[in-house]
Amino acid sequence: MKLDDNKRDREKYPWWKRGVFYQIYPRSYKDSNGDGVGDLPGIESVLGYLNNGTEKSLGIDAIWFSPFFTSPDRDYGYDVSDYCAIDPRYGTLDDFKALLKSAHERNIRVLLDLVVNHSSDQHPWFVESRSSRNNPRRDWYIWKDGRQPGNKPPNNWRNHFFGSAWTWDEKTEQYYLHSFLKEQPDLNWHNSQVREAIADVIKYWLDLGVDGFRLDVPHVYCKDKQFRNNPPFYSLNRNIDFSLFKDRSFMSNLLKLLALPELQFKKYNQHQSETHSVLRGFRKVLDSYQDKVSVGEIIADSLPVIVSYYGRENDQLHMNFYFELLHCRWKAHAFRRCIQRWENALPEEAWPVYTFSNHDVNRAFSRYDQRGRGDKRARMLALMLLTLRGTPFIYYGEEIGMKEGLIQREQLKDPLGIKWYPFHRGRDGCRTPMQWDEGMFAGFSSHQPWLPLSPEHEIRNVRVQDEQSESLLNFFRQLIWLRKKLPLIVEGDYQTYKGRLPSGCYIYLRQQGDKKIAVALNFGKRKKKLEQLFNAGSVKLLISTCPTREPGVIAFPFTLKGEEGCLLELSP
Ligand code: GLC
């Protein structure tokens, strides 16, 4: 009986629902050969930091690697020129196999980044495709004649990095489509050979033992077959949920408005229904192996649209990121509503993912660091990330409170920053080298790193924080290991506390049967008194973001300090 229960639980809560994920941007994690660029042997050498089986390590269960495949780096790895080869700057295939083996020995699973909406223009497929109009691979990409008179681009589609989505090819006298840079031509997902070729790529890595994939912009894969013009941005009948805007930060809304997504609503070059059949195909491949997982980077202004990528029968992506939380204002009600909206939008079987930072946005620490408040707030974010219902993704360096790098114009690498500086400084600031120690190059490399180190690396580093019991790093460790001991954090329902609360406070409950925990958060700067809140016999504080607060049974009224969060266990 017991065994059956365990089996059922394992099926309902497989490793990817239980695990804590960690994103590594390989260029910036650890350099082993002194060229200033991170590499795979470097990463292997620090796996023990991530999980050595003891509470002295971070305790993560899976790594998502941003791309390390062969790439001319026009978009820093997100332009792949060989999907089955490791770029020599990161190492060799043998290095990857060794890394995978060491990771698995430590019970760390490995996810790769599948960037297949587009390839690099240096990919042999595209080189062939552009070589002549009748090359057998011509139709693997999207080619169209110009619009007459004047040989204008075939339609009004804009790319996601601003500008037309079409580039003229002199040699074969047609335009090709690119949803991002012109060096990132879009694959033609209506072509069955393309689908098969990518399925082979997926199988190649799964056969090597990889545990799954993060999918880069899958909502962009298929395009309207008639290539209709996109309507203007402000057109009616668009699928947009305006309630999302009220909880976003002023800056996020401003940027969104200023860019006015290229003055058009991308109706025909993203979120096409055929994409769902592509994803069902991927899922079949993944399911033909055991225990594999996918997580999608779906960007939409409507939650039902994002949710549709789980599939009606849960037969598409296992998980989808929820990017609204990366734009949320520092207000209790904004976080509460933002999280509740996602909880409400998800059907029962669809499993949530939470993350506050990644390689495309300003680091969460700096987003919320107004007047030096980042340290307290980073601890509250960590508490939320690791106790909400869903799989948490930590972005490398988040655990030591790495700040957004301050990159001078001449040091910029990201094409977005180079093109739009100073209006948009690009994404280099969140991709600076991992800070291992206070040495000249922060223990990342013995050489000048490819990007400058972010500020305060003398204090915000692993070596220093490892020794301080009250550091953010040790707080992350405690939370992650506590999470492993409290299955309720994975399995419990999520509920917002609905009773009266002092302003600036947000409480949520996680419940399973008669077991309950609560997370009480004070987003305000002033302390807040909580009256007897729960119908519980006793309430025990398990951990607080405030390092001086001792765990143990608490009495009400209970005073939350300014910007403090507490994890409480409620007993009947
Ligand atoms: C995704 C990636 C981003 C990349 C873009 C184009 O949004 O996260 O880094 O630039 O796709 O591949």
Care to describe what's here?
This protein has 572 residues and is of the alpha/beta class. Helices cover 28% and strands 16% of the residues. The strands form 5 sheets. It has an 8-stranded parallel beta barrel with strand order 1-2-5-9-10-11-12-13. Helix 7 runs parallel beside helix 10 (274-287) and helix 14 (374-385) runs parallel beside helix 17. The model has no long low-confidence stretch (mean pLDDT 94). Residues 75, 78, 115, 180, 216-217, 297, 359-360 line the site of alpha-D-glucopyranose (GLC).
Strand order of the largest sheet: 1-2-5-9-10-11-12-13
Into which percentage range does the β-strand content fall?
15-25%
Distance between the termini: 27 Å
Radius of gyration: 24 Å
Extract low-pLDDT stretches: none
Strand count, sense and barrel status of the largest sheet are:
8 strands, parallel, barrel
What is the overall pLDDT average? 94
Task: Tell me the helix content.
Answer: 25-40%
Number of strands: 21
User: What are the distinct ligands in this entry?
Assistant: alpha-D-glucopyranose
Name the overall outline.
globular
